[in-house]
Design a protein that fits this description.
Elements lengths: L17 E3 L23 H9 L2 E11 L6 E7 L19 E6 H9 L2 H7 L2 E5 L7 H13 L3 E6 L9 H4 L4 E5 L5 H8 L4 H13 L2 E8 L7 H13 L4 E8 L5 H6 L14 H12 L7
Parallel strand pairs: 3-5, 5-6, 6-7, 7-8, 8-9
Antiparallel strand pairs: 1-4, 2-3, 2-4
Helix pairs in contact: 2-4
Length: 295
Amino acid sequence: MADGLNREVTVAPSDGPRVRGAARGLGGPPDVGGIVDVAEHNRRALFDARRTGDIGLVHSWELVTAVDGPGTRMTLFMSGCPLRCKYCHNPDTMELREGTLENVDDVIKRVKRYRSVFRASGGGLTISGGEPLFQLAFTRRVLAAAKEAGIHTAVDTSGNLGHRLSDDDLDLVDLFLLDVKSGLPETYEKVTGQKLKPTIEFGERLVARGKKMWIRFVLVPGLTDDPANVEATADIVARWAPSVERVEVLPFHNMGADKWANLGMTYELADVRPPSRESLESVREVFRSRGLTTF
């Protein structure tokens, strides 16, 4: 996801100026080395542009097949996330301090270049993060333009900020990749630093709206693999069965450990090993026992 939870993002960023922190806006004089320091420049211009969706802080892009939705997909990773997942593989997406300032019209043009690829493969655009709903105005405008161009759209989200979406916003999205971090409230809060309730409420709203979902659950030994937590997660997802096309149980890995270190952040899972194939398959069977197609 959403926070790069199932793999490390290694693609190059976009071609625009790379920033750390908030930029002072577009169209000003060039900055030394392309780096803008929050402490030295005015944030207001960037915040104003973000409110209108004219620009967004984009972490990176990726062109992949059958990973972030069906077919070949252009995945746009946005910066910013309200969660602090202990297993996040891209912690540099948590804050609005790393990325490339992108004009919304330029992003839309880039996405449209791949229309023939999307048509041939049954693919489309996926907006991920970080949390794509953190920069909602920008995300909304990109989704609307993609839909108008006949491009399949997907959003990879934790659902934590789902309350920000209107029904009209929901209708801009063909598929939601909903990351359910845990099924027990106390475990969810331990994993993410946030409450489980917003994710449940968002999932229920998607079902009521008839929206399609792919569910993602990351199996982390010693953190999310307790049988009671797995059972609780499967029970929650089973309630959404009419809208759930598939469940993906993803193995934890610690490829993002160096990023945590480079950011001066404590990585609590440095000594955790990936789950065994047997444990992965056992957890998948729990979801399958609820009648859910699970990989």
